[in-house]
Amino acid sequence: MTVTLPPYEDVVARYEPVIGLETHVELGTNTKMFCGCPTDFGGQPNTRICPVCLGLAGSLPVANKAAIEATIRIGLALNCTIATWCRFARKNYFYPDMPKNYQISQYDEPLCIDGWLDVEVDGELVRIGIERVHLEEDTGKTLHVGGATGRIHGATESLVDYNRAGIPLVEIVTKPIPGTGALAPIVARAYVTELRDVIRSLDVSDVRMEQGSLRCDVNTSLNLPGEEWGTRTETKNVNSLRSVERAVRSEIIRQASVLDAGGRIVQETRHFHEDTGDTTSGRSKETATDYRYFPEPDLVPLAPDASWVASLKESLPELPRLHRKRLQTEWGLSDLDMQSVVNAGAVELIEQTIAAGTTPEGARKWWLGELARRANETGIELAAVGASPAHVAELQRLVDEGKLNDKLARTVLEGVIAGEGTPAEIMTARGLEVVSDTGALTAAVDEAIAANPDVAEKIREGKVAAAGALIGAVMKATRGQADAKTVRELIISRLS
Amino acid sequence: MAAISREEVAHLARLSRLAVTDQEIDLFAGQLDVILQAVARVGEVVAEDIPPTSHSVPLTNVLRDDVVQPCLTPEEALAGAPDAEEGRFRVPRILEEEA
């Protein structure tokens, strides 16, 4: 059945959305949360597990100090209060992604509570309330076989790999975010982006959505102006920043179409589909979830004392928003120009390029110009486009030294992206260096003069501006490799 | 009054995926009731100045350094599994087929 969906602008003119985000971050510790198994991504199935991971009889979990400290640092960066005393809890459920039949998590005593994160949207700061930050263990990976598409539905059996089970996972939950109106999808995306940048700056996780080390669930509800908040749905499987925005937007439209038709929103889990950009209902639970949480008896309470927390606070780096402000001043950019740098995901790349010896203008020109265009065309992240900050710095240095002009530099950059080597190597290998040797250029200049006698005559009469046509002819003849300045001097000296 | 009802026992059995007969529900409800009554007696001495505890020893912050320890080999890891395939634990169908 096809339903005609109302246009987004129409929906947000009539309904007020309230959103909320639950984000999971896998920490980049060396070892798992409660045992000494390594946490590396990938690897052969079930090669990074031990009796604690498997919940074998007699095994005992012991909390990873680095994970606790990372979580406290995240909480501090998000302006949270750090609990002076809290416990882990067992979340009991029947599903084979945890061999213990429970997950060690935190329930009513999270490690960090009640904070906020300021997010910039269209030049305005939006303060997102943080409800809690807690620590738990990640689950294993199930592979459903026998079904049509690897989905759990129709599968005849499932195969489980517990390598991921037990990796420290931080859950960050926002307070409900009302009042953003039509901007709700953009606010959601801006929040996840800022959160990612904060966590990356803390160096506690690689926060890569495509590898699942940053995962996001999006809660959405709609209400009429002046009325109570509506029933919310929770959208899972949102695996990129762009998808966060799309998922909120499509769920707002879907809920409006249900409400417009006089229907009710069901509180449920929905799945986002990257290909179509819409959400479908997850499996509805026959009974209300009952996780029978209770304090984990195998672990003692955590009681971070004030001096420990203070020393962790000391270790916080300059946070991304303030860092960006400082860079903007150093680079002398307008708000708008800085915004395009941020939107292109180029802040760190430009920073590193400058550190490698380039001017801010030089660095920005390449990352926002040729490289951003290439990233857009191929649909990949700027950082993955194939050129490194060191490459860009070297390329600009060759331009500054007069060895490459802009056009040749772009050709060299093509080679860098194609993996042919460093800019200097490519310049030499492909013979792309600018020719400024007068001897080599004189013949080409004489040919151009001979081929364009009327232009030559004008220059002889003192119309130096006409030299451009002859320079163009020489550039063409030398496949763009002539040094334009030298050519110009040669033309004028030969015609005066 | 009983501290736990037959319905609650049946619910817990369902959550734990335990197949229990009607007679067993009666049996376990009675046994669990005795346990719960005993625990409830502790509640009678609850006082404002005694914080609840979940642990018998007064320890906090038992932590370990973030240092990698040896894991099991896949063979050892899978040794206790009822079934395995391609290095993974094999488990029966998770969802019941829908009608």
TrEMBL record, chain A:
Domain of life: Bacteria
Residue span, Asn/Gln amidotransferase domain: 348-495
Known EC number: 6.3.5.-
Cross-referenced SMART domains: GatB_Yqey
Function: Allows the formation of correctly charged Asn-tRNA(Asn) or Gln-tRNA(Gln) through the transamidation of misacylated Asp-tRNA(Asn) or Glu-tRNA(Gln) in organisms which lack either or both of asparaginyl-tRNA or glutaminyl-tRNA synthetases. The reaction takes place in the presence of glutamine and ATP through an activated phospho-Asp-tRNA(Asn) or phospho-Glu-tRNA(Gln).
Family: Belongs to the GatB/GatE family. GatB subfamily.
NCBIfam families from the UniProt entry: gatB (TIGR00133), PRK05477.1-2 (NF004012), PRK05477.1-3 (NF004013), PRK05477.1-4 (NF004014)
Name of this protein: Aspartyl/glutamyl-tRNA(Asn/Gln) amidotransferase subunit B
From TrEMBL, chain B:
Reactions performed catalytically: L-aspartyl-tRNA(Asn) + L-glutamine + ATP + H2O = L-asparaginyl-tRNA(Asn) + L-glutamate + ADP + phosphate + 2 H(+); L-glutamyl-tRNA(Gln) + L-glutamine + ATP + H2O = L-glutaminyl-tRNA(Gln) + L-glutamate + ADP + phosphate + H(+)
Keywords: ATP-binding, Ligase, Nucleotide-binding, Protein biosynthesis
The keyword Nucleotide-binding belongs to this UniProt entry's keyword annotation: yes
Protein name: Aspartyl/glutamyl-tRNA(Asn/Gln) amidotransferase subunit C
Function (record text): Allows the formation of correctly charged Asn-tRNA(Asn) or Gln-tRNA(Gln) through the transamidation of misacylated Asp-tRNA(Asn) or Glu-tRNA(Gln) in organisms which lack either or both of asparaginyl-tRNA or glutaminyl-tRNA synthetases. The reaction takes place in the presence of glutamine and ATP through an activated phospho-Asp-tRNA(Asn) or phospho-Glu-tRNA(Gln).
Cited NCBIfam families: gatC (TIGR00135)
Species of the source: Phytohabitans aurantiacus
PANTHER family: GLUTAMYL-TRNA(GLN) AMIDOTRANSFERASE SUBUNIT C, MITOCHONDRIAL
Matches recorded under Pfam families: GatC
Domain of life: Bacteria
Family: Belongs to the GatC family.
Gene name of the encoded protein: gatC
Phylogenetic classification of the source organism: Bacteria, Bacillati, Actinomycetota, Actinomycetes, Micromonosporales
Enzyme type, top EC level: ligase
Known EC number: 6.3.5.-
Subunit architecture: Heterotrimer of A, B and C subunits.
UniProt entry tagged with the keyword Protease: no
